[in-house]
Amino acid sequence: MVNLWEDLETGPDAPDEIYAVVECLKGERNKYEYDKDIPAVVLDRVLHSNVHYPYDYGFIPQSYYDDGDPFDVMVLVEDQTFPGCVIEARPVALMKMDDDGEQDDKVIAVPTEDPRFDHIEDLEDIPKQIRDEIDEFFSTYKNLEAGKEVETLGWEDKETAKEAIEHAQDLYAEEFQ
């Protein structure tokens, strides 16, 4: 069985084009996690707050970030896909975030195979309303979970996102190869 975190490359041309393995679906409250030991997508929990993922959300293969997890990615999609779906995507921004004292940044990407997103190349191309919705989601999605504190710390451009992906690839190589 293929392990989507270990066996799949980071992308066809990382960091310019990456693979995003979808865990959580646009419009849902279910928080799925990829369990590399099974390997399969499992239900981790249902979000305690009455919020829904604004876009498909998952991780970048062969990456490891400062929070001790695969690097998170949110892919702007019109329609949800499914847990375990692999989306070829272009990074366009980075949302900085602190989750319980750990750096837990999120790459924002667009699918390479959806012409509706061809015009989004960098942070300034993402409409402010979309950025605000993503920020609001991550600012509030853990509010009703006891002892959890999350703080969003602003936005960075595509180049910063690509540098963070390279950092996550380096951490993965140091830790697991």
UniProtKB/TrEMBL annotation:
Cofactor(s) needed by this chain: Mg(2+)
Single Gene Ontology BP annotation: phosphate-containing compound metabolic process
SUPFAM superfamilies: Inorganic pyrophosphatase (SSF50324)
Residues that bind substrate: K31, R45, Y57, Y141
Catalyzed chemical reaction(s): diphosphate + H2O = 2 phosphate + H(+)
Any single Gene Ontology cellular-component annotation: cytoplasm
EC annotation from Swiss-Prot or TrEMBL: 3.6.1.1
Main location: cytoplasm
Highest taxon, organism lineage: Archaea
Pfam families according to UniProt: Pyrophosphatase
Location in the cell: Cytoplasm
Keyword Secreted: no
Annotated Mg(2+) 1 binding sites: D67, D72, D104
One GO MF term attached to the UniProt entry: inorganic diphosphate phosphatase activity
Function field: Catalyzes the hydrolysis of inorganic pyrophosphate (PPi) forming two phosphate ions.
Homology family: Belongs to the PPase family.
Self-association state and partner proteins as the record states: Homohexamer.
Name of this chain's protein: Inorganic pyrophosphatase
Gene name linked to the record: ppa
